[in-house]
Amino acid sequence: MKRLMVLGSVCLLLVLGGVPTLFGQKQKGTLDIPELKEIPGLVEQLKSKEGATRAKAAERLGLRAQLRAKDIATGIPTLLEMAKADSETAARASAARTLGFSTYEPEKTVPLLVGVLKEDKEMTVKTAAASALGYFGPDAKSALPALQEAQAMAKGAAKDEKDKQALGKAAGTSINMINQKGKKGG
To answer: What are the residue boundaries of the structural domains of the chain, listed by start?
Structure first.
């Protein structure tokens, strides 16, 4: 009888664990992909005076771009400007990542991201730009020298220089993505 009660209690707890989703509440760890109707508002938020608001809007647009890149086309000009010149580090990094997810006009975006990779003073932004370049595949071949330079710089990083190590890893992954996609394409 005790076993049956314990088993019943465990089952009840498992069932109740799914209750928040029954009532429309979001679970921790789920992606907050914006719906199409939210895109204009998010594009407007890219121009907010608050850096955190700009960063969050860019991040959410990036989630949508992963689903379908052309859905965020109206925000691309602002994202391009943000990646190279926003005053907030988090906003620049989010914009760079989102540009990677969008793979928008490689002939324009790849050189901009290479510039960010080479010139930005913040490692998190450099890392975001390095990661973003990989999504362009063979269209980012021109970025290989900058990515290789970033990777080489990170090889000499000390164990406590996690930001440099992250940059090196991102650069290496992007190099592989660019070269691999190039091979598949013929």
So the answer is: 33-104, 106-186
Please, what sign has the CA dihedral across residues 32, 70, 126, 161? positive
Instruction: Please identify which residue in the block is written with the tokens 């990542």.
Output: 97
Question: Whole-prediction pTM value?
Answer: 0.81
pLDDT recorded at residue 29: 55
Give residue 69's identity as a one-letter amino acid code. Answer: A
Q: Is the pLDDT of residue 130 over 90?
A: yes
The fold adopted by the segment(s) 33-104 is: Leucine-rich Repeat Variant (1.25.10)
Q: What is the dihedral of CA 172, 178, 184, 186, to 10 degrees?
A: -130
DSSP assignment of 123-146, as one string?
HHHHHHHHHHHHTTGGGGGGGHHH
Please give the mean pLDDT across all residues of the chain.
87
CA end-to-end span of the chain: 67
Q: Do domains 33-104 and 106-186 have the same CATH topology?
A: yes
Position 94 pLDDT exceeds 90 = yes
